[in-house]
Write a structure and sequence with these properties.
about 60% helix; single chain; mainly alpha
């Protein structure tokens, strides 16, 4: 397996810590580093993170997703919440998060960090 560039490893580590800092209030976590993209795959952790960051409660279409379709529904709901808050998202869709596309997931988390600083 090819080793990831240092900048990706560093961002995964830092962004995971930022997410975990907020998620710890609900006893949740995205793991450390490389687990970040995988942790967002169902949409549940991203949904909880958005609830914590916004101080709101949001409806989750599939609280116990088993199928890819259900997970993508959850992620799509999260992206809609982000857009409703006028947070700019460019070039990322629910399938990208489900597929664990690292650079796009890191870009999404960076956007959240920037907006909620």
């Amino acid at each position: 397996m090819e080793e990831k560039p240092v900048w990706i490893q560093l961002q995964q580590k830092v962004f995971s810590r930022w997410c975990n800092k907020h998620l710890s209030s609900r006893n949740l976590s995205v793991g450390e580093g490389t687990e970040l993209a995988e942790s967002l795959k169902t949409g549940i952790v991203l949904h909880r993170l958005l609830e914590i960051l916004n101080g709101d409660k949001y409806w989750l279409p599939q609280p116990n997703p088993k199928l890819k379709f259900h997970m993508i529904q959850n992620i799509d709901m999260c992206l809609q919440i982000i857009k409703q808050k006028s947070i700019p998202l460019v070039g990322i869709g629910p399938e990208d998060i489900y597929d664990g596309k690292e650079k796009l997931v890191l870009g999404l988390i960076w956007t959240l960090i920037y907006f909620y600083k």
